Structures are given as C-alpha cells and as structure tokens.
Amino acid sequence: MDVSTLRTVVHRSLFLLTVSLLGCALSFGAAYRFAQAEQSLLEEEFQHSADNQAQLVRWHLGTLFGTLNQLAVLFHGSENVSAEEFSRVAEGMFGRHREIKALEWVPAVPLKDRGKMEAAWREQYPGFSFSEMINGVMVEARPRQMFYPVYYVVPLAGNERAFGFDLGSEPVRMKSMMEARDQGSQVATSAIQLVQDGQVRKSILVMQPVYQGLPGTLSSRRANLMGFVLGVFQVEKLVQTIFFNRAHSRIDYRLVDDSADGEVLATVGTYDQAMADWTYDIAMADIGGRQWRLQARPQAHYFSEQRTLLPWVVGLGGPILVLVLTSMVYQLSQRNRAIAALVERRTEELDEANRKLIQLTLTDSLTEVGNRRQFDHWLRSEWDAGRRSGRPLTLMLVDVDHFKAYNDNYGHRAGDRALRRIAQTLKERLHRPRDLVARYGGEEFAVLLPETADNVPLLAQALCDAISGLGIRHEHGGEIGVVTVSIGVATLVPATEQTPEHIVELSDQALYRAKAEGRNRVISYGGKVQLQLAPGAVS
C-alpha cells in the first residue's frame, strides 16, 4: 500500500469516524432536547388541568353561595316570610346542591320582642325558647340587648339543637355576623367540626346579611339590619361534588384556607410528599371574605406514565439512524405545518361561515336580539322541558306604545334607533343563559323566562321602568313625553293537553288589556298587577 492510498484510507476512516461521532453527539443531544421538551409540555398540561379545575371550583362556589342570595330575596320581597315559604324555597335548593347541610334564617331580635318571637313557635313546639351553650350544656339564653336566634332551619331533622340557638352568644360567630352586617356582603367562617349521623364532619358557615331597603352606609346598614340567611356547607360533600370525575385523573388536590393560617380544608388523593417540588398553587380570590387556595400536585407516576419512548429511540438509534430520522422528521414537520396551517385556515373560514349563517337565521338584523324564528324554536324547546319537569314558564310580550306616531313624527331611522336601545335594555336586564329576548313583531318583543314564577310582576315592572328611564323623547304619545312600553305577562306550568300557543295567547290577552287601560303598565293574565309605575306614568 503506497503512501497516497494509505493517506486516502486514513482520511476516509477519519471522515467516517467523525460522522459517526457527530451522529452519536447529535443523537444524544436530540434525545436530551426531546426529553426536556416533553417534560415541559407535561408540566404545562398539568398546570392547565389544575387551572381548569380551579375555575370549576370558583364557578361552583359562586353558584353554591348564590343560593343564599336567592333566599335573601324572599325577605326583600315580603315583610313577613313564613316558615312554610322559607322551607319551600330552601328545599328546592337541596335537590340541586347536596353539599348543603342546612339553610337557616337568623333574625335580629331586640330584647323587647323576644317574648313575642318565642310565643309564635310555642304553639307548635311547646317550651321553645332562645338558647345558648354554657359549659357544654344547652340552656335558655340569658337576657341581652339583641338576640340572633336560628328561627327557621331546613331541614329540621338532624338540626334540632340549632333550632332557637342564639348565635350572638358565641363570640366567633357573632364576630362573623357583625363583619357581614357592616360590609353588606357574605362572610364565611373558618372550618368548624359538626356532628352528623354520629360522625364529625368539617363544615363552613356562610352568612348573608338582609336589610330593610338598600342601605348604602355603615350606619344605615347597622340601623336597618333584619337578620341573616345562613348556610351550612359540608366540606367533604363539596369536594365530592367538584371533584366527582377522577377516574382518569393523575392529579391530587388540596383546598387550603390562608385566612386560617393555611388550614387544610380538604385533600383529594394521596398527595404524595415525594412530588412536592411540582406543587402548583392557585389563589381562589375572595371566598366569602376569606382567602382560599387550591394546591395541585401530580401523582408519583404522572410524568412517567405519559412520557414516550422517543428520546430513547433517538438516543440509541446510532449515527446513521440519527441522520436519517433528522431528515425525515424535518420533512414531516414541514409537511405537518403546512397541513395544519391549511386545516386551521379552512376551519376558521368554516367557523366564520357558520357564525354568519347562524346570525342570519336566528338574529334580528336591526336589534341584534333573537328573531321570531329563534323565539318559536326556543319556546317549543322550553315548553317541552317545562312539561317534563313540571316547572313554570313565563312569557312577557312587550309592545312599544304609540310607535307609529313616533315613526311618523321622528322618522323611521329614529324609530330603528329606539328599537335597538329598547332591545338592548331588555337584554341587559336578563342574566341567565336560558332567558331569551326576541323581536316578536315590528315594535313588539318577547321575553321568555324558563323556570320562573316568583317576582315576575316585579321584574316586568322593572323592565317597563327601565324603558321609560331611557328618556327617548316622544311628545306625540302618552303623557310623560318619552317612549314607554306596555307588557303582558303570563306564567303557567305546561300541561300535556296544551300547546306553546296557549301561553302566547294568554300573554297577548294581558298585553291587550295593558294597552286598553292606558299603556305604560304591566298586566298579568287574570288581572292587573298593582305596582308603582314610573314617574309621571298613567295609573
């Protein structure tokens, strides 16, 4: 072998060795990067899942504590709410929220009214009196300037000891009630241990103050306090409800009360200490005046069970395989990006076309609320739902008073603007997803309220006042110089032998009466609703 040939062999060997070493380096480097990227994605997925769970917790707590606001409305709407009325509304909430242990009405009772309040219950419960706990023994409450007894409690079974108990005799609960009274908002207590069915269960109390009128200052809130709606919520059932679907979850959770020095309210899963480095904290904002925090921690096999074999394949494939795979991955990634971009573009075009189609078919182009087609579909759907559930359905037909005269004197463009403002005003005052505002006719709107029967006249009158409150000038109709509406209301429970047109007919009859009796008023089917009209309205 001559020197030239030897030199060539050496050069080729060195080249092959260099390529092999480079291939190994690239292979191991790529494997390391893949492993890092995969770990980052898994950590992001873990945090995203925890954020979604925290959002669910916030929504559920808001819905759950909102039941106290619904009970408080009872006392705003009536000066004397009976135990039967309170129980009827409260029992309906137990079916939707099984984590509620008890719902209570705690009135503020001056010393001079104590005898009358106790006597009201003694006919049904002889010996009833306000009570307090002294040295572990329940005794008759001692005289004090103001009592805060548990006057209504649902369910009574299992909560007999709370019935008549003066919360004002317990400093911790008294402090929470006074905070709620002064703030004018819900206040939650720290976790307490309650005995139920012979077992000690962790619960929290949430207090909703109820006032006469709408006091806006600290002194007026203190002077006009009627009492408190109090909810007792079991933490264990609360957690079971929120975290009900954990069959495939690899994440453990812990609910912490930072207002109680980090007290652990509940733990879901094993909460393995070995995974503490991946603990993810999510602040829950203000929960009844308290700072709660949701901690998420992956289970021991969370990352290992979701990792792929790709880093190992890349790392052990060798120099040649690394080069081949790198070329293939590059080409495939380029192709995938092109396909993904094409699919995304086509999907966006399809979504936009569908959105426009839905808007055209179900939305009134002038007022941007539902059109007659959407109303007819919505009415049939809610009618069938009400017939199955046995729950009431309310329909309001809203007609703009003297609208032809308005168009004749101010022009059709001004009429269109007035209709848009009226439609948006009606829509802004409805907050439930299933409530619907639709344009029923030229100047007529329909308001559909599923599962609604209580305070319907008040809501209708509020809508009537809101329209007149817009102050749309109309000097050629009515007596108050602004655009007003007449509203016909009908509420019924759909029956098998009836059709949706039945409630429309009843609402239309009520609307006809409202217009015949002078307009700018609310008429419910069966008679006129005696309510305060807007200033200057015809009575």
Estimate the helix proportion, in percent.
40-55%
- Number of separate strands: 20
Q: What global shape is seen?
A: flat
Q: Roughly how many Å is the radius of gyration? A: 34 Å
Largest sheet: 6 strands, antiparallel
- Low-confidence parts: 527-539
How large is the share of residues in beta strands? 15-25%
* Helix and strand composition category: alpha+beta
Q: State the end-to-end distance.
A: 122 Å
Number of helices: 13
Give the mean pLDDT: 86
Please give a structural write-up.
- The chain is an alpha+beta fold and 539 residues long.
- 47% of the residues lie in helices and 21% in strands.
- The protein is built from 13 helices and 20 strands.
- Strands 1, 6, 7, 8, 9 and 10 form a six-stranded antiparallel β-sheet that branches. A six-stranded mixed β-sheet has the order 16-17-15-18-19-20, sandwiched between helices.
- The chain is flat, with a radius of gyration of 34 Å.
Labels describing this entry:
flat; 20 strands; six-stranded mixed beta sheet; alpha+beta; six-stranded antiparallel beta sheet; 539 residues
